[in-house]
């Protein structure tokens, strides 16, 4: 019994999401028990990728694998409440990790120096606000840094 195989329309030169189809390739992709022809495509980032026709029409995957990974990571960060590299919910609800020994987020005892340190992660960057013999001084430095960085940021993004 001969299988009927309709001729595919030529998609060369057409844009789908981040991809422009270069032409039909000799490669085939798996779809369950069958294989389907793949199109050679160039992504906006310059990478060459191979996609089946059904994958081209799905905007969530109409990009190379590298861009798809970045896109998925960006969406997860947005869904987790990240803005400019900072998770707003962590600013608003300043809870401690279970491993925190000082009782204050961003203040910890540095065994090597024998001092308390005050640090803060903001917009994806770790900032150090000094070492102190007194835990109270380290807490003051951390609180001052929070007021300086967080309050303005929360005002701008209209969350409190």
Provide a descriptive summary of the structure in words.
By secondary structure, the protein is α+β, with helices and mostly antiparallel strands. The chain folds into 2 domains: 15-79, no CATH class; 82-156, GCC-box Binding Domain, CATH 3.30.730. The protein contains 4 helices and 9 strands. The protein has a 4-stranded antiparallel sheet. It has a 3-stranded antiparallel sheet with strand order 7-8-9, covered by helices on one side. It is elongated, with a radius of gyration of 26 Å. The N and C termini lie far apart (69 Å). 14% of the residues are buried. Mean pLDDT is 81; it is low at 1-7.
Task: Report the strand count.
Answer: 9
Regions with pLDDT < 50 over 5+ consecutive residues?
Answer: 1-7
**Estimated radius of gyration:** 26 Å
Q: What is the residue-averaged pLDDT?
A: 81
N-C termini distance: 69 Å
